[in-house]
Design goal:
The protein is α/β, with parallel strands linked by helices. The longest helix is centred in the C-terminal third of the chain and has 19 residues.
């Protein structure tokens, strides 16, 4: 079985199953969410590709799953990187896979970078990411006009006076839904949490993640499949 898992035919079948289940969730809409989830291994692991980095606010060793989802949960793009690769380095490959049409791409403060704002704008999307605490002041250097627009959209001074929230803050609040998607993937069917001892090296980890995503999508659409 281990030898067959490396063959092109098995990977092709898994890709077709993933696409069939993923396409059952609507991909249309102006709202996209981007985030990352750590997949940790033990500190004594001999996997040389599972380098140390920050995941979920603490230092860990393993890999990271990066995803872009639509507002309805459709997975527009995903990729696996080492834990040491931060969100800014992994995001460009995901943004390049965004479907045409445009809209809003919302992430956390890790994605507040000029290059990502420009790249998202080239795909027709306005990136929205709150500033990091140590980078709230923009300083005097040149910034992307799309980053400045994103800052203005998130700035809502009238909210403290009881006025209805603007679009930017509402989208930022809705981004929390991707955390629930990750939580569902983590808790369902012994899902995407600590990697088991037999899942090591990138090619095995990618295959394991793909199968877990298929299980999660199948559970989501279980009523349609019956």
């Amino acid at each position: 079985m281990s030898r067959r898992l490396k063959t092109y035919g098995v990977h092709l079948v898994l890709d077709q199953v993933f696409d069939e289940l993923n396409d059952r969730t609507p991909a249309q809409g102006l709202f996209k969410r981007i985030d990352a989830h750590p997949l940790t291994v033990g500190g004594a692991s001999k996997d040389q590709d599972a380098r140390c980095g920050f995941g979920a606010g603490k230092l860990a060793k393993g890999y990271k799953l990066h995803e872009i989802r639509s507002g309805r949960g459709h997975i527009d793009a995903w990729r696996l990187t080492a834990m040491a690769d931060n969100e800014v380095r992994a995001a460009p490959a995901l943004i390049d896979q965004l479907p045409p049409g445009g809209g809003y791409l919302v992430g956390d403060s890790q994605y507040d970078a000029n290059a990502l704002y420009d790249q998202a704008a080239q795909r027709g999307y306005q990136l929205l990411a709150p500033p990091q605490k140590k980078r709230r002041a923009l300083g005097h250097r040149r910034h992307s006009p799309h980053r400045l627009r994103g800052r203005s959209m998130l700035d809502d001074p009238m909210a403290r006076f009881g006025q209805p929230p603007r679009l930017g803050p509402e989208l930022l609040c809705a981004r929390a839904a991707i955390e629930r998607d990750f939580a569902h993937e983590v808790t369902f069917a012994c899902g995407l949490k600590h990697l088991p001892s037999w899942v090591r090296t990138p090619h095995r980890t990618v295959l394991w993640v793909k199968c877990k995503l298929i299980i999660s999508l199948a559970w989501t659409h279980r009523k349609d499949l019956c």
